[in-house]
C-alpha cells in the first residue's frame, strides 16, 4: 500500500482505519460483540494498515481500551491517533460539549496514553476548537507543552477552520488535520488546501459517505453508478478511491465493523481512476469552505 508521512518521522499507509464504529449505539459504551470488534481490529493490522484513528470521546474511553486489549503490545509500525477536548453527557450527537482548559487537555492526553498503554501518543488531536472556556491559541499552547514534555509526538487539529490552522501553526508544528470531507460534503475543503500547502496530512472523516448528512438516499447515482460498474466496485469503495486520488495529503480513515467491508476498502486503495473520473466527482458539489462541521 502507498504511504504518507505524518510529521518528519512517521510513515503510515495512506489508507487508515477509523475505530469509532466499534462502540455502542450513539458512539456510547461498548460495541455489543466484543470478539467481533477485536477480530476487526486485528484484521486491520493483519491487512497491513498502519494508522488507526480513535478518540477518548468514543465510548467514552471504551474505544481506546478496546484497541489496547485487541492490539497491545503494538506492532512497531502502528500509529494510533487519538483526540481530546470533547465531553459526553450521553449517547448520540445531542450530548457533546467541549472543554479546552489547560488541566483538562493535559488530563485527556495523560489518560488516553494510560488507556492505550503507550508512553507517548504518536498523534494527538485537539478534537474540536469549539470550547469557549479557553482561547483557541491557549489550547494549542497546552498541546505544544505536552509535546515538549514528550507525552505527544505530533499534534493534530480536528474540525478547525483554515484560519485556526494557521493560527496554530504560528505556535507549534501541526502534523495533521481531520475534517468532514467526502464525495457529497466538502466542509473541510479550505482546510485541505491549507494542509496541502503546509505539508500536513489531511484525514477526511466520514470518508465513505455518498449521502447528505442524516439521509440514506445516495446522491449522484447517475454519475457514480456507471463508474462503479466499470471497476466492479461499490459506492463506498469508489468514495475511498476518489479521496486517495483527490490529494497526496489525503489519509482517509473509513470505519467498519465488518471484515468483508474492511477487505473491500483496502482493495479500493488499488483502484486507478482516470483523471476525467476524478474531476467529475470532484466537481459534483461546490467546495464551500464557510461551514465547519461540529464533528464527533
Ligand atoms: N474528528 C471527528 O470529529 C470525527 C467525526 C466522525 C468520525 N471520525 C473518525 O472517522 C472515522 C470514519 O468516520 P465514520 O465512521 O463516521 O464514517 P465512514 O467510515 O465513512 O462510514 C462508516 C459506515 O460505513 C459503512 N461502511 C464502511 N465501509 C463500507 C463498505 N466497504 N461497504 C459498505 N459499507 C461500508 C460502515 O458500516 P459497516 O460497519 O457495516 O461496514 C459504517 O456504517 C471514524 O471511525 C472516526 O475515527 C472523526
Features:
single chain, 296 residues, alpha/beta, 38% helix, binds NADP nicotinamide-adenine-dinucleotide phosphate
General description of the model:
- There is one protein chain.
- With 296 residues, the protein is of the alpha/beta class.
- It has a single domain, classed as TIM Barrel.
- The protein is 38% helix and 16% strand.
- It contains 10 helices and 11 strands.
- A 7-stranded parallel beta sheet has the order 3-4-5-8-9-10-11. It has a two-stranded antiparallel sheet with strand order 1-2. Strands 6-7 form a two-stranded antiparallel sheet.
- Strand 6 and strand 7 form a beta hairpin.
- The two termini are 28 Å apart.
- The mean pLDDT is 94.
- Bound molecules: NADP nicotinamide-adenine-dinucleotide phosphate.
- NADP nicotinamide-adenine-dinucleotide phosphate binds next to helix 8 and helix 9.
The CATH fourth-level homologous superfamily: NADP-dependent oxidoreductase domain
Helix share, percent: 25-40%
Find the structural class using helix and strand composition.
Answer: alpha/beta
Number of separate helices: 10
Low-confidence stretches: none
Looking at the structure, what is the overall shape?
globular
How do the strands line up in the largest sheet? 3-4-5-8-9-10-11
CATH class: Alpha Beta
What is the total tally of β strands? 11
Order of helices and strands: EEEHEHEEEHEHEHEHEHHHH
Small-molecule binders here are:
NADP nicotinamide-adenine-dinucleotide phosphate
User: Mean of residue pLDDT?
Assistant: 94
Beta-strand percent range: 15-25%
| Major sheet description | 7 strands, parallel
CATH architecture: Alpha-Beta Barrel
First CA to last CA: what distance?
A: 28 Å
Our Rg estimate from Cα atoms comes to: 18 Å
Amino acid at each position: 500500500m502507498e504511504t504518507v508521512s505524518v510529521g518528519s518521522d512517521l510513515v503510515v499507509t495512506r489508507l487508515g482505519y477509523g475505530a469509532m464504529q466499534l462502540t455502542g449505539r450513539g458512539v456510547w459504551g461498548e460495541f455489543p460483540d466484543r470478539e467481533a470488534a477485536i477480530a476487526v481490529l486485528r484484521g486491520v493490522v493483519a491487512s497491513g494498515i498502519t494508522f488507526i484513528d480513535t478518540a477518548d470521546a468514543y465510548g467514552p474511553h471504551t474505544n481506546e481500551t478496546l484497541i489496547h486489549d485487541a492490539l497491545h503490545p503494538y506492532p512497531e509500525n502502528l500509529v494510533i491517533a487519538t483526540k481530546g477536548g470533547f465531553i459526553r453527557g450521553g449517547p448520540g450527537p445531542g450530548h457533546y460539549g467541549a472543554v479546552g482548559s489547560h488541566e483538562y487537555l493535559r488530563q485527556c492526553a495523560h489518560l488516553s496514553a494510560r488507556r492505550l498503554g503507550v508512553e507517548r501518543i504518536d498523534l494527538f488531536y485537539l478534537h474540536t476548537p469549539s470550547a469557549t472556556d479557553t482561547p483557541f491559541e491557549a489550547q494549542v499552547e497546552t498541546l505544544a507543552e505536552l509535546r515538549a514534555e514528550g507525552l505527544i509526538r505530533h499534534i493534530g487539529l480536528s474540525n478547525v477552520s483554515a484560519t485556526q490552522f494557521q493560527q496554530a501553526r504560528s505556535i507549534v508544528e501541526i502534523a495533521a488535520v481531520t475534517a468532514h470531507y467526502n464525495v457529497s460534503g466538502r466542509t473541510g475543503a479550505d482546510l485541505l488546501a491549507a494542509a496541502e500547502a503546509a505539508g500536513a496530512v489531511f484525514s477526511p472523516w466520514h470518508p465513505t459517505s455518498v449521502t447528505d448528512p442524516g439521509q440514506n438516499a445516495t446522491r449522484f447515482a447517475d454519475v457514480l453508478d456507471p463508474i462503479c460498474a466499470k471497476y466492479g466496485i461499490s459506492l463506498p469503495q469508489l468514495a475511498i478511491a476518489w479521496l486517495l486520488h483527490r490529494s497526496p495529503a489525503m489519509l482517509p480513515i473509513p470505519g467498519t465493523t465488518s471484515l468483508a467491508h474492511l477487505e473491500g476498502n483496502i482493495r479500493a486503495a488499488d483502484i486507478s481512476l482516470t483523471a476525467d473520473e476524478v474531476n467529475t466527482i470532484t466537481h459534483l458539489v461546490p467546495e464551500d469552505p464557510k461551514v465547519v462541521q461540529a464533528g464527533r
